[in-house]
Design goal:
Number of domains of chain A: 1
CATH topology of chain A: Four Helix Bundle (Hemerythrin (Met), subunit A)
Chains: A mainly alpha (203), B mainly alpha (113), C mainly alpha (643)
Distance between the termini of chain A: 55 Å
Oligomer: heterotrimer
Largest interface: A-B, 58 and 52 residues
Number of helices of chain A: 7
Number of helices of chain B: 3
Number of strands of chain B: 0
Largest sheet of chain A: none
Structural class of chain B: mainly alpha
Number of strands of chain A: 0
Helix content of chain B: 55-70%
CATH architecture of chain A: Up-down Bundle
Strand content of chain B: under 5%
Bound molecules: protoporphyrin IX containing FE, copper (II) ion
Number of domains of chain B: 2
Order of helices and strands of chain A: HHHHHHH
Order of helices and strands of chain B: HHH
Chain lengths: 203, 113, 643
């Protein structure tokens, strides 16, 4: 149908597209662009209310509640999962099934560890008296980090779906792209945590 | 497994020839920068440097982290321009949103609107 | 003359079986069917929204009327606004885009056909959920922009607001998914030779709108989620008494809301940029200006939101900035107006119904633009905000602009979509009646607004001096309803008995007219090869090429074919592969809808709601599973090749 596919039938995986890029990859990048505004809005709300929180009688000080050690561990977990993710992609591209499975499952494991850590953190904060309704800090903090956690959970499901699909169709030429776009989403979720880590926990 | 080079350059874009070793390196840099961030945070609990300076440094450090993730792990560096477009343009809008709201609300602290 | 006809014999029939009857529609992944589903369901919602408007107009026809109670009146204007914007105009534009964009760029389908089906289902279910609210305690009654803190539970105790949140949440997800689909389709699936600079302007505008959409909607999504948390889970984002901020809601809403008005109007600007040249027998004047002014409008549209909030008292600096930025938007808008006028200038105008609507779009839109400019001036705005003057403004742009533009598009493309011509005589009756009654309805609102009549009041006293204006508006609105009935009658009769439409009834210039009416499932037997902005005209009138297109004819310079596009059949044809029908998107959307119901009641009926959510998630999971399976079977590698 296109020049390339007619003159060079079956150039490996050469979809002919107008920009020469994969449709799904473009779609996921655009989706990530959209998600950027999603999280930007949540972060903006956090910042709009941070000074108001400080002036209220039910002020709760983020610095008193947030545990920098736990957070550092969580941040490291996500960063490490980005590394394992990119290694999984690299293995998948060179057709190394064993290392692909190892790195991908490692990523899933790290993602689960992150979620577990967040559940622990939320639980801990709750017992310290920080809730959705205890203060503006509680309101904004839980909704922001909760939605990030939800994204991590969706990412874990996505990665598992890719893992099982690749297992079901080990020879599909789509596998590398399946892994790549799931990875893009995963790195993005990590990226959001890089922002939350500094903006909420450190500043 | 480190040291494997990829060399299937079939795709028009998206092939960057980074080795696994390189990814480990990037991760190492990320770890160091994170350590610097946390270190700065902890050390400056004694207020050794001004708050604004600390914030600026933290922002710079995490920008480095974010950029590394986007450029190397997400391979945006060297990838097709259209990907940069659909990510960087909304990022610019997002920054505008954050900064303009902070400006708009800076005078309204403590009063609802 | 269609290529499809000429080459039909050589094409192996597409490897897809369309299921017959309803099953075919429920499981479709064909962009043309999905486009029609969008159009029909959006039109139904549109009629419902129209009935709500009529009820309000009847109530306001005479002073001290008691036709509607105040609470029902509040529900009516909320549902009217929400319906028209989210369930009427937006999906009408999406429907036309869905049908036409792939045809116009020479593609066989949208980039993600299953996602496309998901979008239409989510839109339909979102709309239905919004309307369920009527039966479970009352529709939302807080206005389409749902200002805080009126939306909080103590002031809006029914679940109307929750249905509003989830309903537009679903349509929002549908819109974002749809926009991603448009972006990828338009950027990445153009036929060879169809460079960005040769794309039809309708496609350009759809592309810009898709980008606006994915940037603006997440902001609304977050704001509505926060509102939902306020109502049910104890947060206080918009609760001023606890330190929350009602003005933050306004900022977030309008950060989305102003771009939203361009989401509504830009596609229709694209439509008339197709219709005007066709019926003026001239290429569009200043193609690049029209395209790039659209980009400029899209950008600037993100910088003016607070012009809806001048009455808040943002301070002189913010007011000056947002006022000035709003004035600035008038520049690219004006550029377009002059381009359209220049396109008609000295053309040989064919005053078909589509053309009449396009011309009248310009006139009415200019009136709405001018009232917009007056509103953008903070001191003037403070006098006019929240008055009927604003209602006049928005209807001149949304009805005089968007709706008329959509009618231009419907009359223009109906033959392509159905294979039948609409009745032009009825069309003209409809047009003139609509134009007159539209002005009768909405022009007096400028005056009643200037005389101080506020928006959103359910009645007024006889001695306010507004009686005449209101009576005129009410009579006008009833006549408008007649115009819509004429249209409905026209569609219903023409679709059965209208004259058979040829492939190219209007002597069009763009690719959709190269295929039969309606087009075959696979659109193009052979992917066309495009060599100019007006492939069909260049082919039909090669001698005009120099006159019309010489400034953009590098093709001729290179000594290649002058032809607008190539249509030879290559010797070896690859089989056309189309996505298989599947119920997966429908199943996933049903799951999401059940999840939505669960969320609404999670705060009040925890256990039952949570189990409903679980059921929804399971249904979603099942749908996704079959989705993954079918997409694997359908993948281009699996079945050789095909876009
Ligand atoms: C020249 C360009 C325009 C300018 C300067 C402009 C300006 C304004 C201003 C200042 C308001 C706020 C009025 C108030 O509530 O006090 C407004 C309201 C509105 N405008 Fe425009 N406008 C323009 C074009 C448009 C277009 C093209 C559309 C839609 C297609 C549109 C749709 C609306 C709607 C729906 C409202 C009312 C929103 C509401 O309060 O419910 N405007 N416009
Ligand atoms: Cu506006």
């Amino acid at each position: 149908m296109s020049e390339s596919s007619m003159t060079r039938p079956h150039a490996a995986a050469a979809h002919h597209t107008s920009l020469g890029v994969d449709n799904r990859k473009l779609g996921v990048w655009a989706f990530i662009g959209s998600e950027t505004l999603f999280f930007a809005t949540l972060i903006t709300t956090y910042f709009v209310f941070a000074p108001v929180n400080r002036m209220r009688p039910d002020f709760q000080d983020p610095r008193k509640f947030l545990d920098i050690e736990l957070t550092t561990v969580l941040a490291s977990i996500l960063l490490a999962s980005s590394l394992t993710m990119v290694l999984a992609l690299s293995a998948s591209k060179r057709g190394d099934r064993r290392w692909f499975a190892t790195w991908l499952l490692a990523t899933v494991g790290l993602g689960l560890a992150f979620i577990g850590g967040q559940v622990y953190e939320f639980n801990h904060l709750y017992h310290e008296g920080l809730t959705l309704s205890s203060s503006l800090f509680g309101t904004t903090f839980f909704v922001l980090t909760g939605f990030h956690g939800t994204h991590v959970a969706i990412g874990v499901i996505w990665l598992l779906a890719v893992f099982f699909k690749v297992r079901a169709y080990p020879d599909s030429p789509e596998n590398a792209m399946d892994v790549e776009i799931a990875g893009l989403y995963w790195h993005f979720v990590d990226l959001v945590w890089v922002a939350i880590f500094v903006l909420v926990y450190l500043i | 497994m480190a040291g494997h080079h990829e060399d299937q350059g079939a795709h028009a874009h998206g092939e960057h020839g980074h080795s696994d070793r390189f990814y480990w390196l990037v991760a190492g840099v990320l770890a160091v920068v994170t350590a610097l961030e946390v270190g700065l945070f902890i050390v400056n609990e004694q207020h050794l440097i001004a708050k604004w300076l600390e914030v600026t440094l933290l922002l710079i450090l995490s920008t480095i982290k974010g950029a590394a993730v986007v450029m190397y792990f997400m391979h945006l560096k060297g990838d097709a321009g259209v990907f940069k477009f659909v990510f960087l343009v909304p990022l610019a809008f997002a920054t505008t949103l954050l900064l303009s709201f902070m400006a708009l609300f800076s005078e309204h602290v403590g009063i609802a609107g | 003359m269609a290529i499809a006809e000429r080459t039909a014999g050589t094409v192996s029939p597409p490897s897809v079986s369309v299921r017959p009857g309803w099953a075919g529609w429920l499981s479709t992944t064909d962009h043309k069917r999905i486009g029609i589903m969008y159009l029909v369901s959006a039109f139904v919602f549109f009629l419902i929204g129209g009935i709500e408007a009529l009820l309000m107009r009847i109530q306001l026809g005479v002073p001290d009327n008691t036709f509607l109670t105040p609470d029902v009146y509040n529900q009516m204007f909320t549902m009217h606004g929400t319906t028209m914007i989210f369930l009427g105009l937006m999906p009408l534009n999406v429907g036309l885009g869905n049908y036409m964009v792939p045809l116009m760029i020479g593609a066989r389908d949208m980039a993600f056909p299953r996602l496309n089906a998901l979008s239409v289902w989510l839109f339909i279910f979102g709309g239905l959920m919004l309307y369920v609210s009527f039966f479970v305690g009352g529709a939302p009654n807080v206005g389409w922009f749902a200002y805080a803190p009126l939306t909080q539970k103590q002031f809006a105790p029914t679940s109307g607001v929750d249905y509003w949140i989830i309903g537009i949440g679903l349509t929002g997800v549908a819109s974002i998914a749809g926009a991603l689909n448009f972006i990828v389709t338009i950027l990445n699936m153009r036929a060879p030779g169809m460079t960005l600079n040769r794309m039809p302007l309708f496609v350009w505008m759809q592309l810009i709108v898709a980008f606006i959409l994915i940037f603006a909607f997440p902001v609304l999504t977050v704001a509505t989620i926060q509102l939902l948390f306020d109502r049910h889970f104890g947060t206080r984002f918009f609760l001023p008494n606890l330190g929350g901020d009602a003005v933050l809601w306004q900022h977030l809403f309008w950060f989305f809301g102003h771009p939203e008005v361009y989401i509504l109007i830009l596609p229709t600007m694209g439509i008339i940029s197709e219709v005007l040249p066709t019926f003026s027998r001239k290429p569009i004047f200043g193609y690049a200006f029209v395209a790039y002014s659209g980009v400029a409008i899209g950008f600037l549209g993100f910088l003016v939101w607070a012009h809806h909030m001048f009455a808040v008292g943002l301070g002189p600096l913010a007011n000056a900035f947002f006022g000035a930025a709003s004035f600035l938007i008038a520049v690219p808008t004006g550029v377009k107006i002059f381009n359209w006028l220049a396109t008609m200038w000295q053309g040989s105008l064919h005053l078909t119904t589509a053309m009449l609507y396009a011309i009248s779009f310009i006139g009415m839109f200019v009136i709405g633009g001018i009232s917009g400019i007056t509103l953008a001036s903070p001191p003037i705005n403070v006098q006019q905000t929240d008055s009927y003057y604003v209602v006049a403004h928005m209807h001149y742009v949304l009805f005089g602009g968007a709706i008329q533009g959509i009618f231009a598009g419907i009359f223009y493309w109906f033959p392509k979509m159905t294979g039948r011509m609409l009745d032009e005589r009825l069309g003209k009756w409809q047009f003139w009646l609509m134009l007159i009654s539209f002005n009768l309805t909405f022009f007096p609102m400028h005056l009643s607004g200037n005389e101080g009549m506020p928006r959103r009041i359910y009645t007024y006293e006889a001695d306010m001096g507004w009686n005449l204006w209101n009576l005129m508006s009410t009579i006008g609105s009833l006549l408008l309803a007649v115009a819509f009935l004429i249209f409905l009658w026209n569609v219903l009769t023409s679709i059965r008995r209208g004259p058979i439409a040829p492939a190219d009834p209007w002597d069009g210039a763009t690719l959709e007219w190269a295929v039969s009416s309606p087009p075959p499932v696979y659109n193009f037997a052979v992917t066309p090869r495009v060599r100019s902005r007006r492939p069909l005209w260049d082919e039909k009138y090669p001698h005009l090429h120099e006159v019309n297109g010489s400034h953009e004819a590098p093709v001729a310079r290179k000594g290649l074919l002058r032809d607008g596009f190539e249509r030879e059949t290559p010797e070896a044809m690859e089989p056309i592969h189309l996505p298989s029908p599947t119920y997966a998107p429908l199943i996933v959307s049903v799951g999401i809808m059940i999840l939505g119901f669960g969320i609404i009641y999670l705060g009040d009926f925890g256990l039952i709601a949570a189990s409903a959510m679980l059921v929804g998630l399971l249904i979603m999971a099942a749908g996704i599973l079959s989705w993954v399976r079918i997409s694997h079977v359908d993948s281009p590698h699996h079945a050789h090749h095909g876009i």
